[in-house]
Structure formats: structure tokens, C-alpha cells
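Reminder to self: keep the SMILES exactly as supplied, no canonicalising. Ligand is zinc ion.
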Amino acid sequence: MKTLIAALALGASVVSAAPSTPIVPGRDYHSYADPAAFRVKHLDLDVEASFADRRLSGVADLTVSRVAAGATRLTLDTRDLGIRQVWWRKDAATLVALRHSIGARDPMLGSPLHIDVPVEAGDPDFTVRISYQTRPQASGLQWVEAAQTADKTHPFLFTQSQAIHARSWIPLQDSPQIRMTYNATIHVPTGMRAVMSAQPLDGNVDGVFRFEMPQAIPSYLIALGVGKLEFRSTGPRTGVYAESSIVDAAAKEFAETEQMLQVSEKLFGPYRWGRYDLLILPPSFPFGGMENPRLSFITPTVIAGDRSLTALIAHELAHSWSGNLVTNATWRDLWLNEGFTVYLQGRIMRAVYGDAREAMEETLDLATLRGELATLPPHDQVLAVDLRGRDPDDVFTQVPYIKGALFVSWLGSRFGVEVVDRFLHDYFDHFQFQSIDTEQFRAYLEANLLPQKPSAITASELDEWITAPGLPKNAVLPHSDAFARVDQLRRDWLAGKLPVDLLPAKQWTTHEWVHFLDGMPKQVPVAKLTELDAAFDVTATGNSEVAFSWLRIAIRNEYAPAWPRLDSYLTTIGRRRLIKPLYEDLMKTPAGAARARAIYARARPNYHPIAVNTLDGIVLR
Ligand SMILES: [Zn+2]
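C-alpha cells returned for the bound complex:
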């Protein structure tokens, strides 16, 4: 919230609409672009990655359609870019310099780049060439030192463009409702490899890699990774890019990706993107995964050795339909991406791993949602969040994800799961390669699903789901028998009725362990924690999720034997969901706050700018 207030105070921004005025559905309040005047339709990127000075440098050619006759001022989004020169590419041999200016920098939105385009340019399309370089602090780039990678031999670069970080490494119309195809030529140091959310083209020699993305995508899905990467195939259309020391483990962990792909196609229609590969990033990646088309970016924290955390892969794959194919028109509509994706993820996981595991995963998700609903103000508990004047990264709570998925499950409970699967299949067909808003979805739902069983739901029930805070009473909640057994065992052990060596925890799955730990009371005697740790070596677990749940208990109860693990966990992992709650827990006591600040001082230089943005507000307040 600190950065938000600063943004509002300093910003000479386009998001000046007062929150009391009605929101305009479909209007993107987080871009300077005017899509009614011009629309970018193709990007041709040619940049060199310099690790020594942490810069991308080169040119972006944008092919632009003039939508409004007579429009002459093209406005692009940028953030912290050094713009050198702008030309109109009149033809293959002729560049005409164009006048341009850069507007005031808004801390949240960056700076508009205004380009005066001559009236004679384009009929209706024209191409502008922008020569530019990024700055070392670019919010969408992370330059990782060799020491922070898996192999520790070469540095690593990766991008994270969602939500509005593409503008920090490419000047463009950075709005999810503007789709473009792209080509790219990436120059990297000898011995390193570039990969993108695109099809690699032949002829990658001497550090020059070329790519083509023939399907039109929004800017937040443009992605680049550079590292000392190897590739392992896991199926006819699937494979893994990773550093050499983890590539085999990753290929083994994610061997079921092709099977997931087949299940998804059967339920929701053809996979339209060619290949589906994974790029395993260094542990500082601030998210679990990012659904960059053809090449999802994945945190290494889900390589558990037992395929217990592969729901993440099902999730990113599901985005190939909800999100990448049918896209949120604005960040307010993110629930159309994420809620549907979590629902699809559940359908995939059920088919591949069975009902019992999916019931456990949904139960854990529900607990996370409930925890977050307890802390969020009501206006952030609705599916379509009003983000005017706010950082769009604020929308990434559990609400669009888990509440969004529960909405689709609720439709399934009223219309039948197969009917809803079919509806989604047709919805993806109908809106493919388009960006839509909440109101368009609702109109489509009312026209295509509701008439199939007019008595199934009422308008006020639908209203409550889409516009009211909290979880509607009619939500259909998951239930796990396995977890009910774990609950009983936990109670008996805590009450002293069951000795620790009779807990069947050696047979537990990751999910059962997480549920066992998350269900602990706030205060647990240190003697009990010592007993559990001695029996199962919990502090040393190699599973990042189990360790996370355990460390939260350790912080609450000041269980000192876990401090070295807490330190190494926070200084190696940068995944925001796994570290933010640990810092928040630490900050609740003076001793914890001192510990948090000491660890953060060492960890901060290796965190991603997106994680730093979140954590500064928690630890440095
Ligand atoms: Zn997602």
C-alpha cells in the first residue's frame, strides 16, 4: 500500500478517474495507448543482451494500423527505457526520422512515448522503428548472477511481462486488449542460448537466435529467457529447457505434460500453439509459473522428486485456452483468465491423478482463499476488482483464482459438469484470439448456458457471484476424506493420545503433510515441535511447500532449530507466495522483525524487482 500512495501522490497519470465514477467496462486504465486511434499489429525485435551492463539494446519495428482516419499522434507505453531515435520505415531502404517526446514518468505506469506520424504514412498500416536500450532497473527483466543459478557457471536473464512490465523492455502498446504477432532476433554471449514465447527458427549460430510468433498475442505474453540451457524432450510436442544440473530431474518431474495436453484437448478443444515446452528458471523467479505461450516459465521450487507439485504445470498449460487464447481485456477482468484456468487445472488433474488428489488440492486452495479473504478489504473480495489508480499487480490475490474457479464449479453443480465443459469448449472457440471483459463474458453466459436450463440459477445468485465480496453461501466446497483422517491424527497427537512414532506420516503425500501442518493451532509447545522434527526431520525437508508450512509454525512458536533453514530458504527462493507470508509472520514481533530485516538485507539484492516491490512495503516500513 505504500507504493500505491506514492504512485497516486506523484503521478501525473492517465488513471485520474475518481473511484466514485462508474467504471467503463473494457477501458484499460493501465496503458497510455489509445487503441481507437492506432493499434500495433506486429513487432519485429532485434536486441542484444549484455550481461556486463545489464541492458538489452537494439531496435523495435512496430507495424501499426491507423484506426482513426487522420490520427497523427501515436502513443506507446514505456518505463525506464532510453529512447535513442524514432523513424518511419517508408520502405525497405528509406528511414524518415520522426519527432517524438517522452511524457512525465508515473511511478506505476511509466512514461508515454508520443510519436508524430505523418498523415501520408500508411494506408492503413505503417512501420515505425524505435532505437532504444533498457535500464538495469527494468521491472520486467531480471539479470541473475551466475552464483544464483543452478549450475553457477553462467548468468541468467529472464523476463516477466505480466501485468504491465513489457513496457520496461520493449516500447509498445502495453495493454492486454492489443494483440500482435512478433519476430525476434536475439544476440547473446557465445555459449548461451536464448528462448522465447515463440517458435525458434533454424540457423541459430554464434549467439544469434531467431524466433517467430505467428499467433497474435497480448504484450504481457512476450517473453525471453537467456542462459546456459539444455533441452530434454518429454513427448512429441513437449520438452524442458533447463540448466544442465537440473534438466534431467525436471524432465522426469514433468514427464506427464504430454498426457495433460491430450486430456486438455479432449475437454476444451485443439491446442493451437504448436509445441508446449517448459523453461525452468532460477529460484529467484517471483512466481510459480508464467503461461508464456509455447514456453511456460516455471519455478524450480516445484521439482519435488515425486511429481507432487505438478498442478502448476496443469495450471500453466490450461492458460493455453483461458488467458492466452481468450484474454482479459483489462486487469480488472483477470478472473476470466485465472478463475477459469484454476477450474481447467482441476479438470486436468482429476483426469491424470484421480479424484482423491484433486480433492486434497482444492481443499488446500480453499484454505488459502479463506485466509486471504480474512485480510482483504471487501472491495478486493469481488471477482472484477476496480483497479483504477492502483498497481495492476494488486489484483493477483487468491480471489480471481480460487473464488473464480469456485464460480465455475458452482455452474457445474447446477448445469452438470459435462454441460459446463462443453460450454467452455464453445466459449474458447467463439472468442479465440480475442480479449474480452467481464460484461462480455456475462452476456455470452446468459445467451449460451443459462437457456439450457432456465431454472438452474437466478439472476441474483449470478449477481452475488460476480459483484459481491466474500464467498457466496451456495458455493460448492471441496471435501477430502484423506484430510479428515489427517485431522483426526493431528488432534490425537496434540492431545497426547497418539505417540509420534504412530503417526503414519512417512506414507503421507505432500498434500497430507501440508494439511497436517497448516491445521496446527497458533501455539504449539516447542517440545511437540522438537518431537515431530526428531521423528521426521521436517526442518530438513526437500519439499518447498512442506518447508513453507513448517517455517510458518516455527516463526509463530519461536522454534530456534529452524532458524538456519529459514535463513537459507529466504535467501535462495524468491517465489513471492512462498516468502511474503514468512516475512509478514516475522514482522509481528520485535525479535522476528529484527530477524526479518537482517535476512532481507542479504536476500534483497537477489530478489526480482517485482518481489522487492512487495517486500519493501512489508520489511522496510
Ligand atoms: Zn495463472
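Points to follow up:
The mean pLDDT is 95.
The pocket of zinc ion is lined by residues 291, 315, 319, 338, 341 (CB under 6 Å).
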